[in-house]
Here is the input.
Amino acid sequence: MIQLIHVSKQYDQRPALSDVTLEIGKGEFVLLMGPSGAGKSTLLRMLIGAERPDEGQIFVHQKNVTTLKPSDVPYLRRKVGTVFQDFRLLPKKSVFDNVALPLLVQGVSSADIRRKVTEALRAVGVEHKRDQLPAGLSTGEQQRVCIARAIVNGPVVLLADEPTGNLDPALTAEIIELFKLINARGTTVVVATHDPLVMGQVNRRVLTLSQGRLLPEQRVMG
Amino acid sequence: MVAILTTAFTLACVGIFLLLYVNLRAAAGWLQDDIKIMVYLDERLASDSIAEVEQHLRGDRAVASLLFISKEQALGEFKAQFPSESHLLEGLGQNPLPASFVVALSPSFRSPDAINRWAERVRQIAGVSKVDYNQDWIDALATVIRSIELVAIGIGVILSAAAVTIIANTIRLTLFARRDEIAILRLIGATTSFIRIPYLLEGAVLGALGSTLSLVMLKFMYELFRQQMRTTGRFAGLDNLMAFFPPSVCLALVAVGIGLGFAGSFVSIRRFGEAKA
Here is the structure.
């Protein structure tokens, strides 16, 4: 599903990723660990074509992201859901409209939008908040809405960049459970985090980045 | 709103100049209508031959109208125009004035070059002794018209560029205010055209509203100006010669406004898109 072959990237002569090679299979749940500045976000941004590597090749869902034309990038992103630490919800749009956005840009009919958005909101447990603005929600609820937006069009991969960075331990556990549920339905999930709490809750493969280099793999039990 | 008003004022400046240009051009056109070419005939041309020359001229597609002036009519006109000088001709015994045709050319043959070519051609016709017209006046008129056109194009281009810049800046501010929204749209898979089209439309609407408002302002100023001319009485009659843009030109101006607005947002979006790529 995801393959990186000898990928390197520098910013102003400072290496962000150095010779990273890895493979993530279909339906896997992978934690991407490492301290701030280790290169986790850079790696995730490369997977959605927001950054290009200086060297190496990246494949996502059989597409070579490295050679993807700019006009094809949106179509890659429709297959890859993204969740952010700061949620990135549109403040003036309701929860329903925020979640409907990925379907709207694909030209999905309004009847299908209604059905799919309702399903996604139900899956993350915020269906009752559908008409509220993001500002009226708790941080946990905002992150759930962000996850609903990421899964509403049935992506093959879900990428989450520090999704629990703004959440307390109880909410972190809830969000991780949600990712597990999404993964159980067959979606490949990659969660980038430096939060040891997350690692304690996941019995999955862990990839660790340190100063842009991939350390030997480990598997945690939780 | 500020952008619409600024665009309207800029386009109104274009409009004022265009209105001036249209009216000056019309005035130049009336003057061109007055250009008459005299085709003088040989002294002793028989009436059959005169009829032949007339037939030749009437068959020429450059000729819009034709008036024959016989020797007698020419003499009569001379006497009427210069009564105190008529004794000069009497001393000659016979009428020295030749018969002639007064020719007005069709509008497409009124350029100095076309008139020259036509006159040269007519001089070759048997029975024609001389072709006369006021070449200096025609050249001067053509120069004036060309200058008006050049200045109109120059000012039009400068003010249009100003309108594009104003609209481009307005759209740039809108894009800046919505940069987070645009970034989110990109992340969730919106295509470039999905993101661009609303802003292009916004620019086009700004241009349309700006140009419509500028036309309203122009019409108001135009009527005020005419009213002023009528009441002062100093330029009586001239106000009737002035004309506002016909509906087709008004529509064309709105279309130009839409085009400028579209171009303005296109410039902004391209710059913004490149910066965010």
Notes: Chain A has two domains: 1-79+155-222, 89-154. The longest helix of chain A spans residues 169-184.
